Amino acid sequence: MVQSDLQFSTKNKITDESYTQGMVEDSILLLLAERQRIVYSVIDRQRQKAVVLRDFRLVNDSGATSAYTEGFFNRILEEDEILRDILPSQTIIGVHSSKHSLVPDPLFSKDHLEETLSLTCRLSTLDRFYADPIRSANAHMIYAVEEGFLSETGERFKEASLFHASSAFIESQLRINKHESEPVISVLLRQDDLDIVITQGGELRFFNIFPYQTSEDFIYYLLFAMEQHQLNPDVATVRCYGEMEKTGAHWMLARKYVRNIILGEAADHLHYSYGFDKLSAHAYFGLFSQYLCVL
After folding, report:
1. Residue 90: strand pairing partners
2. CA distance linking residue 197 with residue 207, whole number of Å
3. Which tens digit of pLDDT belongs to each residue from 97-114?
């Protein structure tokens, strides 16, 4: 049932004319769901090109504590014709779950997902359990997804492939930084959570997700991760993606403590419609890194 009282805003909206004119015959749908945000893109598979983007934000559910607000997806379907009518060749759904654990392959068992996750997370009877292989790290991401989200998206996209939103980000950073001899700290800021990945060459040295509300929270967790790995803020490189802008408070504060902080580039395994020129290159890296799941 759709919760009609849920209200959302559209932060960014891009539609290439090739899509509206019916010229995209073979499409891939990338969809990313967070606590108060759903963003998706349509990829023209033949041209390897992003031709549609929608970024929806809840505006009246700031007190939400669960990983997903029930009814949000169906509420979007009411008003978004593209998502309602699209018949993609393939659908990739990334869901950001704070109930996660990165497990080395020798300790991983697909028959004990719930048992393994229960060692570090408080689980619910509504949780369903999944695991993604992180091949470059020789590990698996185990995570829980709420039944409400699975029911809503599954009814519309029955053949969708599900991944944890951080799995492709980890994989992408291992690929990007595989020739870097020194450690690189990669940060993906979401609306309410912060992914921190530390790589050195082809090795994953650290990964975690931290909840944050303020710039002080952000810099605390960043410096904490660097300190734990004895990385000097005056020397180590920090690369930022997602909800980070050079005019924002997060960036201004981080510059006081970290000398070599930079913004990341766009995911380079795709081309982008001209409409994407107005967006910051790093802003939707988390979404487009999911395309690695189909390569």
Report:
1. 28
2. 5
3. 999 999 999 999 999 999
